[in-house]
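**User:** You know discrete backbone vocabularies at least as well as I do. Would you mind producing a protein record, from residues through to fold? Write it directly below this note and I will take it from there.

**Assistant:**
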Amino acid sequence: MKTIQVYDPPMCCATGLCGTQIDPALVSFAALLTELGRKGVKVERYNLGQQPVAFVQNPTVKALLDRESTAALPLILLDGEVYRKGRYLTREERVTFSRAALGESEAVAS
């Protein structure tokens, strides 16, 4: 089973889908993670403002934060490897990412 880990910058809640100015890319990304989870992909999501210990316990994440500070966030790992850093995925990247998470023949529409 594939594993996705998302290390988000500090947000008002666990998903960032609250408040008055919601980023549409964040909404689409959250929907993608939900769908991938339903299809059997293990999804772990951490918010720097609420779960800072998770950021220092992962050596890859800690090293990036030491080097680039919070500019590296959001940080998306697929099976422990950095997939994207510094921004959420574009629409096109979400399709490629879902294929990588599910296997080349499948993709989640987002």
